[in-house]
């Protein structure tokens, strides 16, 4: 029976969370979109279910409506705790939807108070005295300040959240966390008694996540990045690795994040690659789609085993250039990838690495994927997946969050598919 349920605001975030639950031995299914009632029985066998939505950058009312539907499904599945998964870098604008979604989930779950835990120390996200750090930098001094969709303007998580919710937000700092789960529980309850509905809890290492997870085990709602899932009670089940599906290999990078830029630069040295031309997409989307398909297929015909890469940002100037070519550059790039992905699969692609949360959503939707099985972990937050497509053969996928993964991920990941 399913005990844990999650709602993730993007597809990479969903696989990030599922990978962490899998590493605790929990069998975890990722469903793309709110599943239909007749699809629920297949999910009941899992310990945990993640419903992946593509709502990170959509209007709050629309996002909340989808989240309420997803919450109803998790209730139907009998989940005793709902995990509200947003980005470990709290990606949102002041009009963003993290607050409204959490507010709706307080109502849906009947929770009096919910923790806010963006920390994921394995991936360099820590929260210290309420401030979110990316590596050594406060969030608003990290590369996230230049994000094309969600430029981050503050590092204090309570300030970011307070801009998006009418509810009071409290903080529990690391000195309390280091005293253990009972002290954290007491501090959360005390904050709740003073009227707070959210409590941002510091986490500077994995032990803190385990402490917070223990303290909140019986809470109907927790919120955070994926790190808190690493504190889930472990099951002694050795997770099996996914087998590789034979076929062509392709990298589709639509992420503008700095880590992806470095991965793109690294991969350009080892594989054929081509940068998307936003101007050409504006002028003739269908023609450009065909040209890109032909170009990839020709590269495969030269060497069937070598991956081929399409990318949209090689360095930070490409975002400004893309925007200069069209104010709709982001949508055009997402549309291109979602249309191209199924055509690449028809042309033989069975192993795809996709970079960027929004981009991964577009590609998965384009491929018609309904459920993802989570396999071997490549690096914190990044795993191989098997995507089940509606009326088409399955594919292996990596849906990589923009800022995650080792620099050589695009060339090294393939070896990890048995
Ligand atoms: N050259 C570009 N110019 C403008 N927008 C771009 C460019 N390349 C990618 N984008 C858009 O930026 C967004 C990146 O978001 P996402 O895929 O979530 O990755 P990340 O958050 O890591 O940057 C997408 O909407 C993508 O289409
Ligand atoms: O929590 C995280 O950092 C990731 O799971 C995530 O959501 C990253 O988003 P993108 O950078 O948009 O892929």
UniProtKB/TrEMBL annotation:
InterPro entries given in the database record: 4-carb_acid_sugar_kinase_N, 4-carb_acid_sugar_kinase_N_sf, NBD_C, NBD_C_sf, OtnK
Domain of life: Bacteria
Record's keyword terms, sorted: ATP-binding, Carbohydrate metabolism, Kinase, Nucleotide-binding, Transferase
Annotated ranges, domain Four-carbon acid sugar kinase N-terminal: 4-230
UniProt-listed Enzyme Commission number(s): 2.7.1.217
GO molecular function: ATP binding; kinase activity
Location of the Four-carbon acid sugar kinase nucleotide binding domain: 250-410
SUPFAM superfamilies: YgbK-like
Keyword field contains ATP-binding: yes
Catalytic activity from the UniProt record: 3-dehydro-L-erythronate + ATP = 3-dehydro-4-O-phospho-L-erythronate + ADP + H(+); 3-dehydro-D-erythronate + ATP = 3-dehydro-4-O-phospho-D-erythronate + ADP + H(+)
Function: Catalyzes the ATP-dependent phosphorylation of 3-oxo-tetronate to 3-oxo-tetronate 4-phosphate.
Family under the similarity heading: Belongs to the four-carbon acid sugar kinase family.
Protein name (record): 3-oxo-tetronate kinase
UniProt source species: Pseudoclavibacter terrae
């Amino acid at each position: 029976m399913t005990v844990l349920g999650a709602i993730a605001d993007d597809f990479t975030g969903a696989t990030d969370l599922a990978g962490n639950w899998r590493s605790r031995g929990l069998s975890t299914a990722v469903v793309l979109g709110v599943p239909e009632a007749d699809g629920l029985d297949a999910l009941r066998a899992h310990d945990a279910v993640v419903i992946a939505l593509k709502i990170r950058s959509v209007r709050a009312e629309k996002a909340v409506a989808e989240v309420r539907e997803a919450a109803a499904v998790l209730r139907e599945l009998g989940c005793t705790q709902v995990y509200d998964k947003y980005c470990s870098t709290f990606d949102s604008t002041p009009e963003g939807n993290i607050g409204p979604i959490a507010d709706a989930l307080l109502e849906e779950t009947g929770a009096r108070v919910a923790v806010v835990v963006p920390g994921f120390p394995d991936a360099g996200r820590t929260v210290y005295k309420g401030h979110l750090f990316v590596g050594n930098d406060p969030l608003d001094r990290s590369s996230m300040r230049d994000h094309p969709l969600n430029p981050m303007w503050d590092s204090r998580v309570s300030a970011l959240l307070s801009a998006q919710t009418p509810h009071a937000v409290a903080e529990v700092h690391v000195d309390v966390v280091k005293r253990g789960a009972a002290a954290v529980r007491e501090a959360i309850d005390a904050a709740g008694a003073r009227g707070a509905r959210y409590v941002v809890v510091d986490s500077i290492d994995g032990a803190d996540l385990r402490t917070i997870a223990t303290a909140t085990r019986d809470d109907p709602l927790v919120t955070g990045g994926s790190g808190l899932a690493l504190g889930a009670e472990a099951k002694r089940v050795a997770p099996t690795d996914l087998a590789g599906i034979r076929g062509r290999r392709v990298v589709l990078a639509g992420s503008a994040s700095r880590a992806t830029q470095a991965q793109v630069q690294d991969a350009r040295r080892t594989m054929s690659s081509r940068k998307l031309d936003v101007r050409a997409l504006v002028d003739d989307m269908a023609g450009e789609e065909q040209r890109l398909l032909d170009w990839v297929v020709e590269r495969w015909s030269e060497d069937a085993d070598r991956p081929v890469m399409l990318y949209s940002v090689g360095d930070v100037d490409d975002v400004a250039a893309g925007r200069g070519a069209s104010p709709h550059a982001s949508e055009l790039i997402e549309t291109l990838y979602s249309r191209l992905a199924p055509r690449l699969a028809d042309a033989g692609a069975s192993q795809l690495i996709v970079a960027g949360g929004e981009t991964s959503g577009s590609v998965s939707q384009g491929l018609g994927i309904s459920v993802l099985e989570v396999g071997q972990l490549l690096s914190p937050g990044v795993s191989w997946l098997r995507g089940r497509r509606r009326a088409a053969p399955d594919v292996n996928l990596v849906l990589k969050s923009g800022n995650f993964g080792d620099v050589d991920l695009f060339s090294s990941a393939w070896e990890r598919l048995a």
